[in-house]
C-alpha cells in the first residue's frame, strides 16, 4: 500500500503545479488608447481626471493662444512630466508605477492656471487610457486672457532671448569697433588726400572775399569771407553753368571734382583753375 500512497502524493503535487502555472500564464491586461478628447477646467469645480496608462504617454494641449510657462507636479518620482526643450502648448505625462495617482498644475504664459488629476488605470476594468487631451478654459476671465498679451515669458524663451541679446550686443560692439577703426584710418589718411592745387587772381579773390580752394578724392571746397554769397559756376568749353553745392558759414562743398569754375557777384568775378586741369 505504500507505493500507492507515494503515487497519490506525486500526482497531487503535479496537479498543484499545473494549477499554479495556469494562474501565472493568464492573459495580461492590455491597455488601449482613447480617441483625443477635450476637458473643461474651471476654478470652482473638481479637476478633471486624466486616465494614464503605465509607460504610455498622454499628451496635454493648452489652447492655441497659450504656451506653458511652468508646471508643478505632485509626484515627480513615479510620474514623468515633459514639456520639451522649446516653449510650446504641449506637455507629455507618463506614469512609471501602476495604480498611482497625482495632480498637475499648469501655468500658462497668459496667466491662466489649469489643475488636472492624473490616474494610472492598469487595474481598472476599462483598459482605455487618454492619448491626447485638449484643455478648454471654463471661466470667463480665463477666456478673456487668451486675447491679451502674454504676462509670463517661458523659461526656455527667456534663456533664448538672453542669448540673442548677448549675441546682438557682441555683434554691435564688433561693428562699432570696426567702424571706429575705419574712421580712424580715414582720419589718419585724409590729410594726404587733400590737394591745394588751384590758382586764381589773388587781388580779385581778396576783393570778393575768397580765401582758399581745395579738393579731395570726391569733393571740391571753397572757403571765403563773403559780404554776400557769390554764385558758383563750373566752366566747361569756356561756358559757365550753375552747379549743385552746399553752403554753410562761408564754405562751399561741391559733390564733384572741379577743374575750372568761377565765383561772381554782380560785376565781380573770380575765375579759378586746377593747375593740372584743362580750361
TrEMBL record:
Residues 1-22 form the signal peptide. Keywords: Coiled coil, Signal. Residues 155-189 form a coiled coil. This is Conjugal transfer protein TrbG/VirB9/CagX. It comes from Acidisarcina polymorpha. The lineage of its organism: Bacteria, Pseudomonadati, Acidobacteriota, Terriglobia, Terriglobales.
Amino acid at each position: 500500500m505504500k507505493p500507492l500512497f507515494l503515487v497519490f502524493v506525486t500526482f497531487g503535487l503535479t496537479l498543484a503545479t499545473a494549477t499554479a502555472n495556469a494562474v501565472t500564464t493568464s492573459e495580461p491586461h492590455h491597455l488601449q488608447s482613447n480617441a483625443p478628447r477635450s476637458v473643461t477646467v474651471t476654478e470652482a469645480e473638481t479637476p478633471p481626471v486624466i486616465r494614464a496608462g503605465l509607460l504610455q504617454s498622454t499628451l496635454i494641449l493648452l489652447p492655441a493662444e497659450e504656451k506653458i510657462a511652468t508646471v508643478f507636479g505632485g509626484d515627480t518620482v513615479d510620474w514623468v512630466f515633459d514639456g520639451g526643450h522649446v516653449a510650446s502648448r504641449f506637455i507629455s505625462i507618463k506614469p512609471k508605477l501602476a495604480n498611482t495617482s497625482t495632480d498637475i498644475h499648469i501655468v500658462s504664459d497668459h496667466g491662466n492656471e489649469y489643475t488636472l488629476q492624473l490616474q494610472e488605470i492598469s487595474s481598472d476594468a476599462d483598459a482605455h487610457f487618454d492619448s491626447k487631451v485638449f484643455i478648454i478654459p471654463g471661466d470667463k476671465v480665463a477666456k478673456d486672457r487668451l486675447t491679451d498679451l502674454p504676462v509670463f515669458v517661458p523659461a526656455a524663451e527667456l534663456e533664448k532671448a538672453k542669448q540673442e541679446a548677448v549675441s546682438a550686443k557682441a555683434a554691435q560692439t564688433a561693428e562699432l569697433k570696426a567702424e571706429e577703426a575705419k574712421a580712424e584710418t580715414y582720419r589718419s589718411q585724409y590729410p594726404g588726400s587733400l590737394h591745394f592745387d588751384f590758382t586764381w587772381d589773388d587781388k580779385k579773390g581778396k576783393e570778393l572775399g575768397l580765401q582758399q580752394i581745395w579738393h579731395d578724392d570726391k569733393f571740391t571746397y571753397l572757403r571765403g569771407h563773403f559780404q554776400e554769397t557769390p554764385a558758383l559756376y563750373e566752366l566747361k568749353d569756356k561756358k559757365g553753368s550753375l552747379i549743385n553745392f552746399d553752403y554753410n558759414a562761408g564754405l562751399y562743398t561741391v559733390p564733384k571734382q572741379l577743374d575750372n569754375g568761377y565765383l561772381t557777384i554782380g560785376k565781380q568775378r573770380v575765375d579759378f583753375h586746377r593747375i593740372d586741369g584743362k580750361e
